[in-house]
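Re: the multi-chain job from yesterday

Posting the exact lines I submitted so nobody has to dig through the queue logs.
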Amino acid sequence: MASALRASRGLRSMGRVAAGPARCSFKYTSVRALANSSSAEASFLPDEPVGPKVVTPIPGPKSQEHIAELNKVFDTRSLNMLANYQKSYGNYISDPDGNVLLDVYAQIASIPVGYNNPALLEAAKSDQMISSLINRPALGNFPSHDWASILETGILRVAPKGLNQVFTAMAGSDANETAYKAAFMWKKQQERGGPDVEFTEQEMTSTMVNQKPGSPDMSIMSFKTAFHGRLFGSLSTTRSKPIHKLDIPAFDWPQCSFPNLKYPLEEHVEENAAEEKRCLEEAEHIIKNYHNPVAAVVVEPIQSEGGDNHASPAFFQGLREITRRNNVLLIVDEVQTGVGATGKFWAHDHWNLQDPPDIVTFSKKAQTAGYYFGNPELRPNKPYRQFNTWMGDPARAILFRAIIGEIERLNLVEHTANVGDYLYGEIDKLARQYPEKFQNLRGKGQGTFIAFDNPKRDEFLLKAKSLGINIGGSGASAVRLRPMLIFQKHHADILLDGFEKLAKSV
Amino acid sequence: MASALRASRGLRSMGRVAAGPARCSFKYTSVRALANSSSAEASFLPDEPVGPKVVTPIPGPKSQEHIAELNKVFDTRSLNMLANYQKSYGNYISDPDGNVLLDVYAQIASIPVGYNNPALLEAAKSDQMISSLINRPALGNFPSHDWASILETGILRVAPKGLNQVFTAMAGSDANETAYKAAFMWKKQQERGGPDVEFTEQEMTSTMVNQKPGSPDMSIMSFKTAFHGRLFGSLSTTRSKPIHKLDIPAFDWPQCSFPNLKYPLEEHVEENAAEEKRCLEEAEHIIKNYHNPVAAVVVEPIQSEGGDNHASPAFFQGLREITRRNNVLLIVDEVQTGVGATGKFWAHDHWNLQDPPDIVTFSKKAQTAGYYFGNPELRPNKPYRQFNTWMGDPARAILFRAIIGEIERLNLVEHTANVGDYLYGEIDKLARQYPEKFQNLRGKGQGTFIAFDNPKRDEFLLKAKSLGINIGGSGASAVRLRPMLIFQKHHADILLDGFEKLAKSV
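And the result, structure tokens for all chains:
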């Protein structure tokens, strides 16, 4: 296949060409796609480019000009690629130099149904959207007459099983932090003896100086290599990398080992089961003994920023049992895993829990954020305890409703399960051929939420761009795939062609 | 004037009438406005209602139905009034029952240029807005080619004097928290010996378990009765009311007395100067001695949620000197005071500082959020230290640009200074007539950012609604006025008529 690939006319478009007035505009077709007829597959978005096109080094000269201008006023050191979104479409991101890349990173896993998706375009032009944009309400004080309907036909239409309430927020960090606040208020209320027991004078005076008992020494337990956000409370539960945390004061909250599974899973069944058992025992030990009492455990279904670390449904079932038994809440952080990418709408749907999580947080692909809950006791006992001026953004909630509509119309969750199976299977073949380059392949049966380790990960990602593919990393050495839900077999074939080329050269 | 008011045909519309099919739709004209010819003044928005209209008790029957539906899925206990934003216009907020209220609360001080402002409508329909809505970027990684231009023609066009950089955020809380993070990183970098000194192994391992030295015991000093937000870091600097803080773990950070000025100011000159001196001495003592070293001081130009507490320019000049002398940052929280309401674009413009604040945070009327800074050392020394997925929202930044355009077109900052002077003068007259009802009138020369205390504040606010006026409170007993920037003399007259009526009945 290698020589076939090299001979492919299309593949020339994936190599870097010298900068300058770009004239090449031929179309790309994956050899793999031709071979297995998925090139005949229709795109969900008919006007999508047929393949990537790389006409300059990235960043090209025009991008460099924009970056230099931007850098005067805005830190650009984490800039990955400058984009032209008006010219991006579907799975393809464009830049000002005319480069068009297959985007399997998707704004850090946050574009659900493609750039310039026509259904979202229509929603964005609607009167309701425009009113929400220009008349932004303080939702807790002055909700609009249609806010209940926006919630019921949108955010709550896809509420996780067993959860029927929502507190809306702005992004993943504050979704998690408001969930933590709900957990602390719930736990203290139990200790106090119920919702009708008034705060003591001592609680009210001590909290004004940030001291206990009013500001209690309680904690949220998180897991090693977890990521839950970067504000002060969420960052105290984030354990992914020092660079995220250095120099920022943190709460004395506990961390528990997360299972360190060995791959391939089928060759390490007993070892992995023992590892998960060990972690569950550690979790229960911390919950029972940590000096700052634990109000809740927060966990990602798949640790995403931390390197795509998975655990089995049995582990999460065990965690649910332990948290229930010890009367602490289980908060499932679905900020990155939610909204279809794992082949279920919510990744925790894979666990088949009889007793649902207490709280599920969401953001990213929802394009809005917040937390779901079901237990009415998680509404604090008095108004204004869980409150802020905007409490989310109806404009973004309306967009999520349109996203949900598109997911349903195109059956994108089932689709993603299927294309994920195909993609996983093909990478697995590559991994057998190039075992050093595709280590610890993970995400089987988890839709397109797939990752592997590569010893030269950063070079791998950089070179992928020159081949017309935008991919992200996570953790120390993981290549993480986060395609959109409209990622199809023919896109997978382009990605796989690129992987094969990278396996040979990086 | 009282009998004239009662005789006014218009005023009947301000009283509660029985619920039921509303037939009354006559127009309201303030007697005060007729008397001083401001009724002839043209509205900035020509199609604005001429006055409030109250046709049912609030909430009326239709609102009650919507509230009951909303309450099933969303906590409504802090609900003030259900709104129909499609039918609201300019300074007037409407509800589903046909009530139309003059809105001098404006979504907790966050609507700048009126409901359904035509210029914002146009911006909301623009291609750039629509693209920003449906192609939401991860701004730190993949900014759009026009992001520099959106910043320069919008957020940065109104940057406070001396500050030319911005970090964009989502709302007031995370604007403040990211500013605090910048302060901690700056302070630790100084201690470490500059941007090129690498983190130690001990710092990197200790921060992963939330312990020093990697997660240092440093602090942000705030002031008593301050409000800076409700996430864990911002809440640790908020000192307004116990209900905001109870049961939520907090950092051991210090608070300093804020001047408790006596009114009228001109009768307490020496006393107030002594009070400000005392507070400044306390501030310096805390900065020099607090056991968790202070990296920054955060202060509101006017403490807003805490009850509209003012201090003089001399106090803030002193605070700038003290923070500079002690090498800690001065963060000015302009979330509520910014964007014109005080008769200057930024409230701290009133201070005439030669040495600008290190950081100024903004949100609310900007409809987007973030922090300004000027010192390049406030960019952390490495990428990804100050970072998150979305880092703000270009759609909201585009809206701020349109707001700025409207402020410039209508000269709304100077206008607000003038109408504020008029409003203050007239309330001052009422205060002389009804001293018990308008205590501690404050905000002279501060645009429409005016407040007073009323011993029956909550009843005052409630009854104002039945008179067709939506007003907010703050602190324990303050009535705070937060009209929009398009609030004009004829609106002021309607408000003043209402105040006079309230003074007699509450």
